[in-house]
């Protein structure tokens, strides 16, 4: 069993306004074999308000993400 | 309608947030002029021919965020001057429509419905030519050519073509509009026909260029919160559940709104309970006196639809005030200026309702995205709040399950049926202006007889409103969960 990667999604009001809920929904729809390798956490703020939605995947902060870029990054990190 | 948060939505929200932040930082007049450049420099928008056009469009978006009627001649002034005016002038609200077209942003997309694409191969059969009842298709330069003057846009040629080379296109705004309120304006841009518009906001969601938007009320609201000597009350619509992100429940939202300056935060669902009682009584009376079908009065778009497009049915609209007005009335008597009531909800049509019907009971209407932008502008992050459970105001924070469910399609009729406890009631529901229109048409023609029709201007009801931030599917799930919790506590 390979190690899990951490995925942190900012749910602060600023990121929420910019669509962080879409990021959460897309993570919800991931295939089970990917889902079980993700350690998902909600974060209150990443101090990058105005550049949202922000996520941190395996420790790397990404701003202005879309559901597509998040899924792509997760898949890259899992290889 | 928040199912997909498009770039257009993000731009609108970003502009609202920036304007709110400038006001809170007392920098609006000084910095507003440079805001369009700042935003393009940051790469917020880069879709048009050049950044000057982007900035020109952003200027209009900023004016709307400031609450300025961009159709008026004096809106052509510099942003700085306009900003100074809105800050200095006493809070005055105009009855101009809130939904408005940004002329510069409209892409003047094709108004010709039938369109021959490159897939046309000038085949031998020419099914298109043969299928046309008006002789409107000729072959020009080895390709089908539609003679606009003759074309009646029936679509038969598109169906007939073996290659699917003829497509039927319609402007997204006019396709989304079920009441023919989007017409062709000057310079081939879109235009809103006020006489037909029911203020549902479907066109705003539909336009991929963000050319239709709405006049915001954030400046007035912030002014009331910052300078008002009187009490400022937030009246929060039943659909608030899940709108502000995970973990933001009633207590957290209330804490955040109080931090922002609201002296009291109440649930409009409390007013809905009164509406259920009153509307049920009215319905009973109407049935006894054989007055025909009764329509719910809580959805302003649905009411607009009947008033503007089915005048013969207006007598059937329930005279019961909407939950917003009921709740406001519980808080202040007409003409009582000591309390400022600000409604917070998913709806754009409520802005018009507040002007037309509230007699001063409602001092402002903000959508969820507007209030979120104000919170962010003030530096308040709801996700960081939530220390303790607040004490509930017994009267205005403990609505029934039926009242909470007012915000989902079918909720109003269910509440009425529950309260009537009467068998054999004939009820029909419709959600979305198009479906409402269909049902009203049948009722008007006497196709069937019913006692009550619930009409909702938005698909899924209020939880699908244009001012929402969370999709209706998610909101519906959370609403069910909350209803269960309330049930368990009773």
From TrEMBL, chain A:
<dbReference type="InterPro" id="IPR036249">
    <property type="entry name" value="Thioredoxin-like_sf"/>
</dbReference>
<dbReference type="Pfam" id="PF01257">
    <property type="entry name" value="2Fe-2S_thioredx"/>
</dbReference>
<protein>
    <submittedName>
        <fullName>NAD(P)H-dependent oxidoreductase subunit E</fullName>
    </submittedName>
</protein>
Automatic annotation (TrEMBL), chain B:
<feature type="domain" description="4Fe-4S ferredoxin-type">
    <location>
        <begin position="188"/>
        <end position="217"/>
    </location>
</feature>
<dbReference type="GO" id="GO:0046872">
    <property type="term" value="F:metal ion binding"/>
</dbReference>
<feature type="domain" description="4Fe-4S ferredoxin-type">
    <location>
        <begin position="142"/>
        <end position="172"/>
    </location>
</feature>
<keyword id="KW-0249">Electron transport</keyword>
<protein>
    <submittedName>
        <fullName>Hydrogenase assembly protein HupF</fullName>
    </submittedName>
</protein>
<dbReference type="Pfam" id="PF00037">
    <property type="entry name" value="Fer4"/>
</dbReference>
<dbReference type="Pfam" id="PF02906">
    <property type="entry name" value="Fe_hyd_lg_C"/>
</dbReference>
<keyword id="KW-0004">4Fe-4S</keyword>
<dbReference type="GO" id="GO:0051539">
    <property type="term" value="F:4 iron, 4 sulfur cluster binding"/>
</dbReference>
<keyword id="KW-0813">Transport</keyword>
<dbReference type="InterPro" id="IPR009016">
    <property type="entry name" value="Fe_hydrogenase"/>
</dbReference>
<dbReference type="InterPro" id="IPR004108">
    <property type="entry name" value="Fe_hydrogenase_lsu_C"/>
</dbReference>
<dbReference type="InterPro" id="IPR027631">
    <property type="entry name" value="Mono_FeFe_hydrog"/>
</dbReference>
<keyword id="KW-0479">Metal-binding</keyword>
<dbReference type="InterPro" id="IPR017896">
    <property type="entry name" value="4Fe4S_Fe-S-bd"/>
</dbReference>
<dbReference type="InterPro" id="IPR050294">
    <property type="entry name" value="RnfB_subfamily"/>
</dbReference>
<keyword id="KW-0411">Iron-sulfur</keyword>
<dbReference type="InterPro" id="IPR017900">
    <property type="entry name" value="4Fe4S_Fe_S_CS"/>
</dbReference>
<keyword id="KW-0408">Iron</keyword>
């Amino acid at each position: 069993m390979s190690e899990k990667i951490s995925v942190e999604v900012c749910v602060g009001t600023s990121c929420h306004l910019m669509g962080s809920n879409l990021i959460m929904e897309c993570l919800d729809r991931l295939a089970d074999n990917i889902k079980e390798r993700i350690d998902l956490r909600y974060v209150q703020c990443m101090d990058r308000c105005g550049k949202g939605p922000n996520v941190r995947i395996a420790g790397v902060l990404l701003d202005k993400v879309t559901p597509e870029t998040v899924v792509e990054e997760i898949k890259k990190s899992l290889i | 309608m928040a199912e997909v948060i498009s770039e257009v939505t993000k731009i609108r929200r970003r502009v609202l947030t920036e304007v709110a932040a400038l006001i809170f930082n007392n920098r609006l007049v000084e910095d507003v002029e440079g805001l369009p450049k700042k935003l393009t420099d940051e790469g917020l928008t880069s879709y048009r021919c050049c950044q000057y056009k982007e900035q020109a469009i952003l200027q209009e978006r900023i004016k709307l965020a400031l609450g300025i009627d961009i159709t008026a001649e004096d809106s052509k002034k510099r942003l700085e001057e306009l900003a100074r005016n809105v800050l200095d002038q006493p809070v005055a609200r105009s009855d101009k429509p809130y939904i408005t077209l940004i002329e510069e942003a409209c892409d003047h997309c094709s108004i010709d419905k039938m369109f021959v694409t490159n897939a046309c191969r000038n085949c031998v059969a020419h099914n298109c030519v043969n299928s046309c009842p008006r002789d409107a298709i000729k072959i020009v330069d080895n390709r089908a050519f539609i003679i606009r003057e003759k074309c009646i846009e029936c679509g038969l040629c598109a169906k007939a073509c073996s290659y699917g080379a003829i497509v039927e296109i319609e402007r997204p705004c006019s396709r989304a509009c079920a009441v023919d309120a989007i017409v062709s304006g000057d310079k081939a841009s879109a235009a809103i026909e006020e006489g037909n518009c029911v203020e549902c906001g479907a066109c705003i969601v539909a336009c991929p260029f963000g050319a239709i938007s709405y006049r915001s009320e954030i400046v007035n609201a912030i002014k009331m919160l910052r300078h008002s000597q009187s009490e400022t009350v937030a009246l929060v619509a039943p659909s608030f559940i899940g709108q502000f992100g995970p973990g933001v429940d009633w207590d957290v939202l209330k804490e955040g709104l109080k931090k922002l300056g609201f002296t009291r935060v109440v649930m409009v669902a409390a007013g809905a309970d009164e509406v259920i009682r009153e509307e049920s009584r009215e319905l009973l009376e109407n049935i006894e006196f054989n007055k025909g079908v009764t329509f719910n009065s809580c959805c302003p778009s649905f009411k607009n639809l009947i008033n503007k497009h089915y005048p013969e049915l207006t007598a059937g609209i329930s005279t019961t005030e909407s939950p917003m007005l009921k709740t406001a009335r519980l808080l202040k008597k007409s003409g009582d200026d000591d309390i400022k009531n600000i409604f917070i909800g998913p709806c754009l049509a409520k802005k018009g309702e507040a002007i037309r019907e509230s007699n001063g009971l409602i001092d402002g209407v903000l959508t969820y995205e507007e209030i979120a932008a104000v919170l962010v502008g003030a530096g308040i992050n709801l996700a960081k709040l939530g220390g303790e459970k607040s004490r509930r105001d017994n009267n205005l924070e403990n609505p029934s399950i039926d009242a909470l469910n007012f915000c989902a399609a079918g909720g109003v009729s269910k509440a009425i049926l529950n309260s009537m406890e009467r068998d054999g009631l004939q009820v029909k529901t419709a959600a979305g202006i198009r479906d409402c229109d269909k049902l009203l048409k049948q009722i008007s023609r006497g196709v069937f007889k019913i006692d009550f029709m619930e009409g909702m201007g938005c698909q899924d009801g209020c939880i699908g409103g244009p001012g929402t931030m969370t999709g209706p599917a998610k909101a519906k799930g959370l609403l069910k969960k909350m209803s269960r919790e309330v049930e368990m506590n009773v």
